[in-house]
Amino acid sequence: MTSTLKRRLGLLVVMAALASVPLLFGSFTVSLFNDIGMATLVVLGLVLLSGVAGITSFGHAAFVGIAAYATAWLNTQFALSPWLALPCALAVTALCAVLIGALTLRLGGHYLPLSTIAWGLSVPLLFGNLTMLGRHSGISDIAPLSVAGRDLMSAEAAFYVVWIMVGLVGLFCHHLLNSRMGRAIRAVRGGDVLLSSVGANSFHVRLMLFVFSAVLAALSGWLYAHVNRFVSPAPFSLHAGIDYMFMMVVGGMGQLVGAVAGATIVLALKNVLQDVLPLVSQHAAQIQAVVFAALFILLLQNARGGVLSLVSRVLPRRPVSPAAASTEPASEPLERRTMPTKGAALLSVDAVVKRFKGLVAVNEVGFEVRAGEMVGLIGPNGAGKSTMFNLITGTLGLTAGRVEFLGEDITRRSQREIALMGMGRTFQHVKLRPNMSVLDNVALGAHARGRCGMLRGGLALDREEERRIYDEARRQIARIGLTGQELEAAGSMPLGTQRLIEIARALASDPLLLILDEPAAGLRKPEKTALAELLRRLREEGVTIMIVEHDMDFVMKLVDRLVVMNFGTKLFDGAPQEARADKGVRAAYLGDAA
Ligand code: ADP
Ligand code: MG
Hints:
single chain; alpha/beta; ABC transporter involved in vitamin B12 uptake, BtuC; Rossmann fold; six-stranded mixed sheet; four-stranded antiparallel sheet; 25 helices; binds adenosine-5'-diphosphate; binds magnesium ion
């Protein structure tokens, strides 16, 4: 049996089992299942936001509450039907998330989780003190959901609505993770510099993801209001927000299935404890908190990946997106840039200075690069070569000086804007996502060449574009000789190979200027020869290349021109043969290499 068939069969069995729940169990158990389904919706958002992208939020219960209160208020005040109140509730929550996200997502380190605690505390406080929202007694007599004119009063009837939504949202999230935006979301942990280098707007990606997760929480809140037909501040407290986070961790952080697993385990356990603990003690609530805390610590000690990691051996391998799995080519390739005419001025660096506090890392360095050239930048360790590259690519801001690219002043442009103009780069300290496949890492490079956003990705309406992106990624992987290893995790590759993967990622952006920081470090002789061959071919195609390299044999045979730096200043600029003869260069650099 193929793995797809197995997965489909498994899914059918799960669906059949779920569908029979209301027929097999009493109302109490069915209500528990409804609670699990509603919690799963929130946790699915948290899996993407926290588990995958690493943005911790303890405040998502507040978003559940905002939507629940919004729909409750609209329904009881204006008799608006639940289905009409749904878009309003989602919109209000999304708006709150945009505001909160815009204010807090720029905060680094611990400030962000702390700020989530702040709004997680204050929103339910607001509910409890607003007279129009019924203060602490909340809002009751909310209309039940109705489908085709029939009110879904019972838990059994609501069950199907809840779980159909869980299924649809789960499918959406699955498609989303395997889309263009999904790759960017999975790369968020790699940092802003990585995302900007492929032309993605890191803040925008994080904000969209944050709003999306808030909308999922809102959907859960809307269901909550119409299933329970009563809202009060308590279920949306910070405590509930921490519980959602707990479910996410218990389920296994980065896994969508983990959302259901985590919600089920935590809510079922709570239920059992609520039955059992009162029999043993009068302080049941306190003991429950202690039991949960103890379990949490045990879990983090023994199974960081959550319960899913414990059973992962029997689970099918994580599926790859259809576009990534198929080798059927797209109807047409991605559009390409027009290369500048050979010899035209491409990059001009003029009296550039970079100061790190007291240290002048780059001191009034200037040079030109013409289209179609391959220029080597060499110099001893600490000469300022990587800093120079960071200044050209906009990764670092200049202290003084001016950089022009394609005839435009890019001195004050952002790293992302410069990348979008056609500057591709690799990093001295490799920036790959180790858990993503080689293919996905390279496909990330083509981010700016695609258009599909989260909605089209989640609805799987991006297949043709994805095929084009993956075709391009495969072509670049073939160039670095890794065909057949596309689906391996990038982190499992030797460091030298990881450098090559970064080159393929940069090439996937169709760069006019390729900036390579020590690409041959860690490569063996035959691999170096292959790399030199690739770079020569790229030059023939019209790609301009700047390269930092320590292997003098390698670089001398390869480049058209050398720029030599030492202690932040430029020593030499000219043909490689002349560099060998230059006294200053010999003394500073070649002298100790020869
Ligand atoms: P190279 O790539 O030529 O080996 P670098 O450009 O990495 O040299 O470093 C040049 C100098 O600038 C070194 O002395 C290094 O310690 C310093 N430097 C580089 N980056 C930073 C930074 N972010 N903060 C402070 N000093 C830095
Ligand atoms: Mg360096």
